[in-house]
Specification:
Chain A: GO terms for molecular function: catalytic activity. Chain A: It comes from Prauserella flavalba. The complex is a heterodimer of chains A (about 400) and B (about 425). By secondary structure, chain A is α/β, with parallel strands linked by helices. Chain A has two domains: about 10-210 and about 350-390, Crotonobetainyl-coa:carnitine coa-transferase, domain 1 (Rossmann fold), CATH 3.40.50; about 240-245 and about 250-330, no CATH class. Chain A has 14 helices and 14 strands. Chain A has helices at about 20-30, 65-70, 85-95, 110-120, 145-150, 170-195, 205-210, 215-220, 260-275, 290-295, 295-310, 310-320, 340-345, 385-390; strands at about 15, 35-40, 75-80, 100, 125-130, 200-205, 230, 235, 245, 250-255, 325-330, 345-350, 355-360, 365. In chain A, α1 crosses α6 (about 170-195). Chain A is elongated. The two termini of chain A are about 30 Å apart. Chain B folds into two domains: about 20-230 and about 365-425, 3-Layer(aba) Sandwich (Rossmann fold), CATH 3.40.50.10540; about 265-355, formyl-coa transferase, domain 3. Classes of the chains: A alpha/beta (about 400), B alpha/beta (about 425). Chains A and B meet through α2, α5, α6, β6 and α7 of A and α3, α7, α8, β6 and α9 of B.
Chain lengths: ~400, ~425
């Protein structure tokens, strides 16, 4: 029974049989919040242990940073499903679990629906590239292929269309599937609190991406327009002005200059003028929107020059201080020094096998009533086999 | 045409009976509470007639193409397609929160709800006296979900943000693009969607916690922090190895370093700006691809004999493969390669998703609902199918103030003449 102060996931037992980052990240989301996630690995270890990046100078089964990223806070159990013993051990784990995360069509010889029937309280969380059935269900996918077929890739890339659409980094196709796996599981858990019964939750990465393109579908559903990609700004039916400006230190800021809004326009001109860089933008005719629009390329040039004379952090913080929605394009290594994140205690130290602890992102959620601790060390291969299987 | 009954009814689903006083507006908040509404919660969207929600103002109209940002100077608040997409299955009421009597009505609504949601700039809820402490007085087990760019603690809470700013600040923009030039980043507000999904999850975790313990909670979710959680293993490479990502060969565009896939990219297809993604991970994939290409001479090049060799020779490899894909329709190539066991996918636009994707059609990922002003419209549905739970699509988005009478008189039990008087005075 959960008591006040305890994360509701602390009562959950999860078996994870995942072969891609979508399932592994789903397991991580649960484990980092306190669920007991038992990651079942074959004797040679999960494929993610053989995927880089690796700890510098190492390439053994414990050295994959890819594995460590996707498997924090879990327990690792090794079992050999080619043996009767191994299959029996897996069946026993599943019989005791609240949730089974899997991308496979069968586990212990049973499909997801048969598993759910055999275990009435079990929630079978099937996280697959296309869903459990349908004409493309057996098609192969990957992060890139998923983002292409699901639509997001059509919106991403450069103004120059001789360059293909460019995949955004960080396995976001898989991450989008994981988000829906998480919310889908929560709906099934809430259903189970009402009637005591589990069910099959069938998550399709393809469908998840097809509903996550923001404006692209509404542009098609309503005005029947197809958006076209632009460099680092919204894909649109017709071109808009660049929104990325380079600063003196080579870093880029994102700033969408929308001429129609009087307040941000005045804030920008005042800022430029305070450094003697507003040139003729202070002239009274620029108070008129039509004049600004007619001279847009001149305005854009002056703004480009202005940012080139500021360093990135100054542009970000001073712009924000003046009420402008400006974002610095941080590199990952620049996040650890961010004063806001530091004040929130966001990054947490996570123990690393054979090395110093490393900073990793803390919980993406904060609750006043219960703890949301965030990540703990990823398990060594088979580290918990004995504790879990009793051998 | 059949008149659709738009009157509120008993909802179905795992969240049926949950009443949400929803102050959210714009994209993130509306998408976050949409999932609650889709699965049975009575989400009561609270709007201000004098300060229309942006998606009500944006001209996503049938038969009228405009670029985002080209606003309609005199919009019909009930005509906007984006608002319809974000707010289906919700109830809609109007309250002028800048009046004391309006705030009194809002407090009655909160007392009758058990979840309160908002994504305003910091300070707005406080200005209305709606702090967590006060909400607890109105409803002791309340869940108060606060969604923002930077969170409600820390020196940058006042910073202004929307999707592209969150993507930039969290690092997601920097890790996306070709090496040696500006990032291509994102062509949409990815983080509006992801922050919304994380907020939906946080609210449901809080509901689960309340079902187990009886206690409510305050929730603080920062979109920047969600974004950093999504950076992937590159961040751990930095933290554990001291790697620096401001380097000439980072990021790698469509090429994949971990694992070392090759060919791995987006290749031209027949037609105007049409493309196909192909991903080859190992020797078996390569053999299947070569067979499907008809084993042309160039594939026998010793440089391409091993996965390591192919990875090291991607420029040449991509040139050969492009020459083949360029002559062919993206979908036909995809089906051929997939039949041979090679991971491949056409770069689909929204029309492709809607009209030529049998998988989405099979799953019913998009669905239709009628709307009194817009007419029949298509919606983005649930990518998750359940064996015992269904998305309860009962109505398209509310017209402005459509459910005032139901919510204020039936749900809250206010006398009809009081509601009429407050409406007359512009408070409701």
């Amino acid at each position: 029974m959960t008591t006040a102060g305890t994360n509701p996931y602390a009562a959950l037992t999860v078996v994870e049989l995942s072969e891609d980052p979508a399932g592994e990240y789903t397991g991580k989301l649960l484990a980092d919040q306190g669920a007991d996630v038992v990651k079942v690995e074959p004797p040679g270890g999960a494929a993610s242990r053989r995927t880089g990046p690796f700890v510098r100078g190492r390439d053994d089964a414990e050295a994959s940073l890819n594995f460590r990223w996707y498997n924090t806070s879990k327990r690792s159990v090794v079992l050999d499903e080619s043996t009767a013993d191994g299959r029996a051990a897996l069946a026993a784990l599943i019989a005791d679990a609240d949730v089974l995360i899997t991308g496979r069509s069968t586990v212990c010889g049973l499909g997801p629906h048969a598993l759910a029937e055999a275990h009435p309280r079990l929630i079978v969380l099937a996280v697959t590239p296309f869903g459990l059935d349908g004409p493309w269900a057996s098609y192969r996918s990957s992060d890139l292929v998923g983002l292409a077929l699901g639509g997001p890739l059509n919106s991403c890339g450069y103004d120059d269309h001789s360059i293909p659409p460019i995949r955004p980094g960080g396995n976001q196709g898989y991450a989008t599937a994981a988000s829906f796996a998480h919310t889908g599981l929560l709906l099934a858990l809430l259903q189970r609190t009402r009637d005591g019964r589990g069910q099959v939750v069938d998550v399709s990465m393809h469908s998840a991406l097809a509903v996550s393109g923001e404006l692209a579908n509404p542009f098609w559903f309503y005005p029947r327009a197809i958006v076209r990609r632009q460099t680092c700004r919204h894909a649109q039916p017709s071109p808009t002005q660049p929104a990325l400006f380079q600063c003196a230190d080579g870093r880029w800021v994102y700033f969408a200059l929308i001429l129609a809004d009087q307040k941000p326009w005045q804030a920008l001109v005042d800022w430029m003028d305070s450094l003697g860089l507003a040139a003729d933008l202070v002239e009274p005719e620029y108070a008129d929107l039509a004049h600004r629009q007619a001279n847009f390329s001149h305005v854009q040039e002056l703004v480009e020059v202005f940012f080139l004379l500021l360093d990135g952090d100054t542009a970000y913080h001073e712009g924000q201080r003046r009420g402008l929605p400006i974002g610095i394009t941080n590199a990952p290594e620049e996040l650890f020094g961010d004063e806001h994140l530091a004040a929130r205690g966001f990054f947490v130290e996570v123990e690393q096998d054979g090395g110093e602890p490393a900073l990793q992102p803390g919980s993406p959620f904060w609750f006043s009533a219960f703890s949301a601790e965030g990540p703990r060390r990823a398990p060594r291969l088979g580290e918990h086999t004995e504790a879990v299987l009793g051998r | 045409m059949v008149t659709v009954d738009r009157r509120p009814r008993q909802r179905r689903g795992p969240l049926a009976g949950l009443v949400v006083a929803d102050f959210c507006w714009m994209g993130v908040g509306a998408v976050a509470t949409r999932m609650l509404a889709d699965f049975g919660a009575d989400v009561i969207k609270i709007e201000d007639r004098t300060r229309l929600d942006m998606p009500r103002r944006l001209p996503f109209y049938k038969g009228d193409v405009r670029t985002y940002g080209e606003e309609d100077p005199n919009p019909d608040p009930d005509k906007g397609g984006l608002f319809n997409n974000y707010n289906r299955n919700k109830l809609g009421v109007t309250i002028n929160m800048r009046t004391e009597r309006g705030r009194e009505v809002a407090e009655r609504l909160i007392a009758a709800s058990s979840v309160v949601t908002e994504n305003f700039a910091p300070g707005v809820m406080e200005r209305w006296g709606l702090t967590y402490e006060h909400l607890c007085e109105l409803r002791p087990d309340v869940i108060f979900a606060r969604m923002s760019g930077y969170g409600h603690r820390g020196p940058h809470t006042e910073y202004r943000s929307y999707g592209p700013v969150i993507q930039a600040v969290s690092g997601l923009t920097h890790i996306s693009g070709l090496p040696g030039r500006e990032p291509s980043g994102w062509g949409f507000s990815y983080m509006d969607n992801q922050a919304a999904y994380y907020n939906s999850a946080a609210i449901m975790m809080a509901v689960l916690h309340r079902e187990l313990t009886g206690a409510g909670t305050l929730i603080d979710v920062s979109a920047v922090e969600v974004g950093i959680n999504l950076l992937g293993p590159d961040l751990l490479d930095v933290a554990a190895n001291g790697a620096v990502t401001r380097r000439p060969d980072f990021p790698t565009g469509n090429r994949l370093e971990h694992p070392r896939a090759a060919p791995h990219g987006v290749y031209p297809a027949a037609g105007d700006d049409r493309w196909i993604a192909i991903a080859v991970f190992d020797d078996a994939d390569w053999k299947a691809l070569v067979a499907e290409l008809g084993s042309p001479e160039w594939t026998a090049d010793p440089r391409f004999a091993t996965q390591a060799g192919r990875f090291a020779s991607q420029d040449a490899l991509d040139e050969h493969l492009s020459a083949w894909t360029r002559e062919r329709d993206a979908h036909e190539t995809m089906h051929r390669l997939q039949a041979a066991g090679v991971a491949a996918g056409a770069v689909q636009n929204s029309r492709d998703l809607d009209e030529r994707d049998p998988q989405l059609a099979h799953r019913g990922t998009f669905f239709d609902l009628d709307h009194p002003v817009i007419g029949e419209a298509r919606f983005e549905g649930s990518p998750v199918l359940f064996s015992r739970t269904e998305q309860d699509n009962w109505r398209s988005a509310p017209l402005l103030g459509e459910d005032n009478e139901y919510v204020f008189t039936t749900l809250l039990g206010m006398p009809a003449d009081e509601v009429a008087e407050l409406t007359e005075e512009g408070i409701l």
